[in-house]
Amino acid sequence: MTALKNDRFLRALLKQPVDVTPVWMMRQAGRYLPEYRASRAKAGDFMSLCMNPEFACEVTLQPLERYPLDAAILFSDILTIPDAMGLGLYFETGEGPRFKKVVNTMADIEALPIPDPDKDLGYVMDAVRTIRRELNGRVPLIGFSGSPWTLATYMVEGGSSKDFRKSKALLYENPQAMHALLDKLAQSVTSYLNGQILAGAQAVQIFDSWGGSLSAAAYQEFSLAYMQKIVNGLIREHDGRRVPVILFTKGGGLWLESMADSGVEALGLDWTCDIGAARARVGDKVALQGNMDPSVLYAKPEAIRAEVGRILAAYGHGNGHVFNLGHGITPEVDPAHAGAFIEAVHELSAQYHV
Ligand code: 1CP
């Protein structure tokens, strides 16, 4: 394998010294980029982008052609797993993801297969291999999956939800069924992420986008416990290097201590936490990734720069910070503003690494 030319992202996750704070953006390949919209039109639709390794590679690299990002993230979606379980994922234009089949009962759950990464999700493994080849060591490649709880919400609701009415009703009415579903998803996610690592992903992130919708007790029992199972089953060394794991629970700021005890290398923070206070709470256990409000990118470059400076100062001197947004970049953002953000992180962070 080619040696990495820029490994500051992996070094920061392992709390090793870096010259400047590394930065990437959740959803960095996406609709705010005109070249992404052109590729999607060429492919036909979003799932065709994901399922064709050449297209997935093309859009993964697009933000790296524009900006000096410190990591690439596999272009795919968290909903590939429920699709591979036979639920039939499709996208209604402007409506977000939908499933042809939903999961309601213990019988539905028992009938779900655990996908084989190479047979059922081979297109994702091919995309990882293609992207690694094309990156040629420029920056590390991040693999990812949704958390069991986050995937379960889509499978039970049949798509996106604001209130998680059906998934929470199932959780409280029939906790055994919810546990059975989460257990199957934890097994599926573990082998999916291990497949990505063997195919060449150099770090992995678990997106627990909807963990923050749960009560403190339910979060422990129905989200964190299953992410813990995954972490326990992941390949942690590959090709002679540690493969760091990042856990991102959106809205999880109150539970950082227990997340830090899970054995992951890093926690992703949304913008509701003060990153300095978060650092004091987790101590030396984990690195932190985050946490600018993506809405700051609607403001002028000077305001973006000021907010980047504020977050860098809040984290303070020393190692263990990967800069990111607190959630995905939105389609309305001006690409020039994303550029100003990345430039500001590199320029303003050098003083914290001397
Ligand atoms: O082109 C389009 O219209 C599709 C928009 C889109 C994109 C660009 C979707 C549909 N997925 C993606 C790519 C994607 N999804 C990536 C690519 C890598 C990157 O550049 O970051 C990643 C990491 C995801 C992960 C994902 N998908 C999450 C977790 C992260 C998060 O934002 O919380 C979730 C919740 C999804 C589900 C999903 N897929 C697509 C949409 C619009 C959604 C969210 C719907 C909802 O809000 O419920």
From TrEMBL:
<comment type="similarity">
    <text>Belongs to the uroporphyrinogen decarboxylase family.</text>
</comment>
<keyword id="KW-0627">Porphyrin biosynthesis</keyword>
<feature type="binding site">
    <location>
        <position position="77"/>
    </location>
    <ligand>
        <name>substrate</name>
    </ligand>
</feature>
<comment type="function">
    <text>Catalyzes the decarboxylation of four acetate groups of uroporphyrinogen-III to yield coproporphyrinogen-III.</text>
</comment>
<keyword id="KW-0210">Decarboxylase</keyword>
<dbReference type="InterPro" id="IPR038071">
    <property type="entry name" value="UROD/MetE-like_sf"/>
</dbReference>
<comment type="pathway">
    <text>Porphyrin-containing compound metabolism; protoporphyrin-IX biosynthesis; coproporphyrinogen-III from 5-aminolevulinate: step 4/4.</text>
</comment>
<dbReference type="InterPro" id="IPR000257">
    <property type="entry name" value="Uroporphyrinogen_deCOase"/>
</dbReference>
<feature type="binding site">
    <location>
        <begin position="27"/>
        <end position="31"/>
    </location>
    <ligand>
        <name>substrate</name>
    </ligand>
</feature>
<dbReference type="Pfam" id="PF01208">
    <property type="entry name" value="URO-D"/>
</dbReference>
<feature type="domain" description="Uroporphyrinogen decarboxylase (URO-D)">
    <location>
        <begin position="22"/>
        <end position="31"/>
    </location>
</feature>
<dbReference type="InterPro" id="IPR006361">
    <property type="entry name" value="Uroporphyrinogen_deCO2ase_HemE"/>
</dbReference>
<dbReference type="GO" id="GO:0004853">
    <property type="term" value="F:uroporphyrinogen decarboxylase activity"/>
</dbReference>
<feature type="binding site">
    <location>
        <position position="209"/>
    </location>
    <ligand>
        <name>substrate</name>
    </ligand>
</feature>
<keyword id="KW-0963">Cytoplasm</keyword>
<protein>
    <recommendedName>
        <fullName>Uroporphyrinogen decarboxylase</fullName>
        <ecNumber>4.1.1.37</ecNumber>
    </recommendedName>
</protein>
<comment type="subunit">
    <text>Homodimer.</text>
</comment>
<feature type="site" description="Transition state stabilizer">
    <location>
        <position position="77"/>
    </location>
</feature>
<feature type="domain" description="Uroporphyrinogen decarboxylase (URO-D)">
    <location>
        <begin position="142"/>
        <end position="158"/>
    </location>
</feature>
<keyword id="KW-0456">Lyase</keyword>
<feature type="binding site">
    <location>
        <position position="327"/>
    </location>
    <ligand>
        <name>substrate</name>
    </ligand>
</feature>
<feature type="binding site">
    <location>
        <position position="154"/>
    </location>
    <ligand>
        <name>substrate</name>
    </ligand>
</feature>
